[in-house]
């Protein structure tokens, strides 16, 4: 990929490589190139390495050379360059996708635990849908503590009472640092909560990672809820910012770290791309933007390959864009973060050859979302050949009138400090919004939130993958269990409940959103293609925890 310039187009070397403002880049080394050659190439282009991942040949570089990208690509030791811009966007205090925090209007109806161990089990229609219940998979296989699930997300509230027992703080790592403002001076993560701007490994200022973690492995302790695999261990591998944005370098570092410490499953409920979809040769993009997107694809895939080769099962959210990933569609939101002041998204048509990473990376299991009725959730992206399996992700509009109701979302752990910050609690701690509930036992109280998104679907599938390893894995010599990711995926797909396309297969979804104090009707027409056993809405079916461990 080294660039060749004709004499008439040779870059101007007359100005100093140190005259510009400092910028940060992610540089991808060519495979089989020695570190010494790569380092020399970076230096020759006017860069200084500040962080390096030698496992996959990716480095973070700082340079004041305004032509660093062009100069770097003249060296055959380097394969790609990308601005180290933020990946994914959400305003401070919200989740990484808009639909996930859509507020419902339905008042919660108190229920009784009955035979269930957990007092909030009556809210967990999702666990009933996949048979992760006291009478279902919990009785056969609740999970094994030797199985490690890495949550690549915004962090985990490791002190949450419905997470703490299964949280492995010693192995957890934070690969990010808080960034108060972006290059345009707009708030990004906001003021740093800790003097180092590096949050502790048991901290979550977003909510997203904590919700995902408890869906996977909230313990059966009689306090609130249970996760899919209530006995497995959770490892916080933080790669996301407080704002819900995700950088390339932390994602690469997180995946390689997971592989090296023996993590069995990683859950990736986000997209690693400021472009949402990375396109190698989109005519609407500049040559520098195309290079950046190729670099993102290649660097992420190297990290995914490394993890897969080390026995990590890779599970990811299928996306919340309401589009068929296998068909051309519009992308009006990329790049969604300015790498230089004033940079804005531009309109372009995205083909099926463009990739949303890590979801569309090789070895990854993309998961679409279902609602309480088992219909594919209105927001969930889809595509025959894109979706591997489906799982409960919530659908607050899953009703004939399309009106949102929090009871149709996914209930999982919610950090108390965020609820307080948002003013969602009365002075005595009682929730004052319908999307938050509290449960107490012996003087210990915990909070839970209703959310929706394919981000909520992926951890259900990830939890089932952890159960499969718990059931069929073998000791790996490090006091852990192991099972080939190919076997895990085969069992996950093979035991899913086949769910055919709806009839007719083109569906008009209707949902309402509160805008300026008024309920506004929204619609989307989506077509399911494929067979009963494998199709664009459900893949090979809705995951089933009980069938997976009875296989």
TrEMBL record:
It comes from the Bacteria. One of its GO terms (biological process) is proteolysis. The active site is at 153 (charge relay system), 208 (charge relay system), 455 (charge relay system). Residues 89-114 are annotated as: Disordered. Keywords: Hydrolase, Protease, Serine protease. GO terms for molecular function: serine-type endopeptidase activity. Residues 145-497 form the Peptidase S8/S53 domain. SUPFAM superfamilies: Subtilisin-like. Belongs to the peptidase S8 family. This is S8 family serine peptidase.
């Amino acid at each position: 990929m080294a660039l060749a310039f004709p004499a008439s187009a040779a870059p101007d070397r007359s100005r100093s490589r140190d005259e510009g403002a400092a910028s940060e880049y992610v540089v991808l080394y060519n495979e089989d190139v020695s570190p010494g050659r790569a380092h020399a190439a970076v230096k020759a282009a006017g860069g200084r390495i500040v962080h390096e991942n030698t496992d996959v040949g990716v480095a973070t570089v700082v340079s004041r050379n305004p032509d660093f990208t062009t100069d770097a690509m003249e060296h055959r030791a380097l394969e790609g360059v990308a601005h180290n811009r933020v990946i994914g966007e959400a305003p401070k205090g919200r989740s990484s996708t808009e639909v996930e925090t859509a507020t419902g209007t339905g008042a919660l109806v108190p229920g009784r635990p009955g035979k269930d161990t957990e007092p909030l089990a009556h809210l967990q229609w999702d666990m009933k849908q996949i048979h992760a219940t006291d009478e279902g998979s919990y009785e056969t296989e609740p999970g094994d503590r030797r199985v490690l699930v890495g949550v690549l997300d915004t962090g985990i509230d490791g002190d949450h009472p419905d997470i703490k027992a299964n949280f492995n703080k010693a192995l957890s790592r934070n690969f990010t640092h808080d960034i108060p403002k972006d290059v345009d001076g707009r708030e990004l993560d906001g003021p740093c909560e800790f003097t180092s701007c590096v949050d502790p490994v048991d901290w979550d200022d977003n909510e997203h990672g904590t919700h995902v973690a408890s869906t996977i492995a909230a313990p059966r302790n009689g306090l609130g809820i249970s996760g899919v695999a209530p006995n497995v261990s959770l490892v916080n591998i933080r790669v996301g910012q407080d704002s819900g944005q995700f950088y390339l370098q932390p994602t690469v570092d997180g995946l390689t770290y997971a592989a090296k410490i023996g993590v069995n499953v990683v859950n990736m409920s986000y997209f690693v791309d400021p472009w949402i979809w990375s396109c190698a040769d989109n005519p609407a993009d500049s040559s520098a933007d195309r290079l950046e997107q190729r670099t993102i694809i290649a660097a992420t895939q190297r990290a995914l390959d490394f993890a897969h080769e080390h026995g990590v099962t890779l599970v990811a959210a299928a996306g919340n864009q309401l589009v068929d990933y296998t068909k051309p569609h519009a992308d009006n939101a990329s790049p969604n973060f300015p790498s230089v002041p004033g940079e804005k998204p531009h309109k372009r048509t995205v083909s099926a050859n463009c990739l949303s990473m890590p979801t569309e990376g090789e070895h990854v299991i993309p998961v679409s979302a279902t609602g309480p009725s088992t219909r594919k959730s209105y927001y969930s992206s889809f595509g025959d050949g894109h979706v591997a399996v489906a799982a409960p992700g919530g659908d607050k509009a899953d009703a004939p009138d399309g009106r949102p109701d929090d009871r149709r979302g996914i209930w999982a752990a919610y950090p108390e400090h965020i609820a307080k910050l948002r003013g969602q609690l009365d002075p005595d701690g009682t929730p004052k919004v319908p999307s938050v509930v509290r449960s107490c036992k012996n003087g210990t109280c915990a909070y839970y939130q209703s959310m929706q998104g394919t981000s909520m679907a992926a951890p259900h599938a990830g939890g089932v993958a952890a159960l499969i390893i718990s059931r069929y894995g073998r000791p790996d010599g490090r006091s852990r269990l192991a099972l080939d990711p190919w076997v895990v995926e085969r069992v996950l797909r093979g035991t899913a409940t086949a769910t055919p396309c709806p009839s007719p297969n083109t569906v008009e979804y209707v949902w309402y959103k509160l805008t300026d104090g008024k309920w506004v009707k929204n619609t989307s027409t989506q077509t399911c293609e494929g067979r009963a056993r494998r199709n664009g809405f459900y893949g090979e079916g809705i995951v089933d925890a009980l069938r997976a461990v009875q296989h």
